[in-house]
Amino acid sequence: MSEFDSLLQGMNLILTPGHIGLMVVGVLLGILVGVLPGLGAPNGVALLLPLTFTMEPVSAIILLSCMYWGALFGGSITSILFNIPGEPSSVATTFDGYPMARQGKAAEALTAAFTSALLGALVGVLLLTFLSTRLAEFAMRFSSPEFFAVYLLAFCTFIGMSKNPPLKTVVAMMIGFAMAAVGMDTVSGDLRLTFDQGWLLSGISFEVAVIGLFGIGEILCTVEESLVFRGERARITPRVILQTWARLPRFWLSWLRSALVGCWMGITPGGPTAASFMSYSLARRFSKNRDNFGKGEIEGVIAPETADHAAGTSALLPMLTLGIPGSATAAVMLGGLMIWGLHPGPTLFVEQHDFVWGLIASMYLGNVVSLIVVLATVPLFASILSIPFSIIAPIIVMVCAIGAYSVHNSMFDVALMLGFGALGYLFKKLGYPIAPLVLAAVLGDKAEDAFRQSMLFSGGELSIFWSNPLVGSLTTAALVMLFWPVLARGVRALVGLKRIKVQRSVP
C-alpha cells in the first residue's frame, strides 16, 4: 500500500466526531499548558498520560499529540505578549515578537507566529509521511560524535552570527554551561558543583531559570520604566490578520530555510530549541533588514516559529521508527506507547498500521485545528494587554512563582527563580545577551555527554570528529559558522583590494 493510500485510510479513521472533539480538547489544554510558565509540553503530556490508559491507542495518541501542538502554539503567546517563554523553544520568538507587541503590533506578530508554525509543522508531517523509511536509515548512522557535532553547530552558529559582541556571547554561554554542569555527572556518577547541598543533587532546573531570567527580569526592567506596559494599545481585528497573511508570502525563502533547519534538528535530534535559535540567527544573517532584528522585525518571528514546529513534528519520526525520542515530549509519548502495548520501531508500521497512519493523519488535521482554535482565542489573550500594569505585574509574578514551584514542588525553586530574575535584570542593564545562556543551559549537558563518550571511543583523539563524511561535514560547518565574521571580513578585504587594483590599472 502506498503512502498516499495509507494516509487516506488514516484520515477515514480519525474523521469522526469523537476524534475531532478530542483534537479540540487537546489543543485547548495544550494552549493552557504552553501559556503557563514552567509547565511546558513534556510536563503537560506527562500529567495527561494517566488519563489515556483506558482509551484506545489511536484516541489516546490523538489527544496527546494535539496537546503537544497546542502547547507549541501556546508557548508563543506569552513570548509575544509578555516576553515570558511558555516553552524553551519559544525563547527566540521573544527577540522580535515582544518588541512588535510593544509597538502595538501584537495581532500581526501572533498571526505571523501561528501561521508560520502551521507551515513548519506541515513540512515535518510531509517528511514523516513520504520519507520515513529513508530518514530512519539516515538517523541510524548517528552516534556520539555526530550528536556532538550537531550541538557544536548550534553553539557556533549563535556565536558567529550574533549581532552581540562575541566575548559577551561566550561569557553568557559559559554561565549556561556551568548551570548545566551542576548535579550528578551522567558519565562517571560523581557530584559536581553541589557544595554539599542536597537541593543541588538534581541540578538547576532549566524551567526555573527561564522563568526568572525572562519573567521576573522583564518585570524588574518594566518597573524601572515607570510601570508602563508597552503592549497596552494592541488591537486584534480580522483585517489585521488578513493583512498579515498577505505579507507572509514575501518571506518564503526564510520560511523554507527555517523549515529545513527545523526538520534537520528534529530528526538528528538537535531539538526544537536549538532549531529555533539557529533559524533566527540564519534569518538575521541573510535578511535585508538585519539591522531591524531585535527591534520588531516580523521575519524574526517567522523563522523561529517555523523551525520550532518543524522540529517538534519531525522529532516524532525517530520515536516511531527507531524508538529513539527526538524531544522530551516524544520521550513521554514513547512511554505511553509502551504502556499501551505498542513497541516503536520499524515493525510498528507493519504490525500497527492503523495506529501509525491514524497518528500521521491526526498531525495534519490537528495542526489545522490548532491554528483555528488559537486564532479564535487571540482576542481573549490580547485583552490582557488592556489591564493596567500595576494589576497585571503582581499576577505575572504570582503565575511565575506557581510555575517555578510546580517544577519540583519546592519553595527553593521560587527563591532560585528570584535569583535568576536579578541576573536577567543585570544582563539587560549591562548589555549581555540572555539567549546564549539559555541555549547552553538546555543543550550543555547533552553536548558534554556526547563529547566525553566520543573521547572514550577514540582514546582522546579529536580526529573522531572527522572520522567519516557525515560528522566531518557537521564539524567543519560548525567551525565555519564560528569564524564567519572573520572570514566575511577577510573576503570583504580581498574584494576591496581587487577593486583598488582595478581602479589603479584603469588609465
Give an overview of the whole structure.
- The protein has 507 residues and is mostly helical.
- It has 24 helices and 2 strands.
- A two-stranded antiparallel sheet has the order 1-2.
- Helix 12 (252-267) runs parallel beside helix 14.
- The chain starts with a helix and ends with a helix.
Output mean pLDDT: 77
Could you tell me how far the N terminus lies from the C terminus, measured between alpha carbons in angstroms? 73 Å
Rg for CA atoms: 23 Å
Q: Total helix count? A: 24
Q: What is the helix content?
A: over 70%
Concise overview:
This protein has 507 residues and is mainly α.
Which properties best describe this structure?
507 residues, mainly alpha, two-stranded antiparallel ribbon, 2 strands, globular
Layout of secondary structure:
Elements: H1 3-14, H2 17-35, H3 40-48, H4 57-82, H5 91-102, H6 106-130, H7 132-139, H8 144-160, H9 166-181, E1 183-184, E2 191-192, H10 206-224, H11 238-247, H12 252-267, H13 272-286, H14 299-314, H15 316-322, H16 328-339, H17 348-351, H18 353-376, H19 378-382, H20 389-408, H21 411-430, H22 435-458, H23 469-482, H24 484-505
Antiparallel strand pairs: 1-2
Helix pairs in contact: 1-18, 2-4, 2-18, 3-4, 3-16, 4-5, 4-6, 4-16, 4-18, 5-6, 5-14, 6-11, 6-12, 6-14, 6-18, 7-15, 8-13, 8-22, 8-23, 9-22, 10-20, 10-21, 12-13, 12-14, 13-14, 20-21
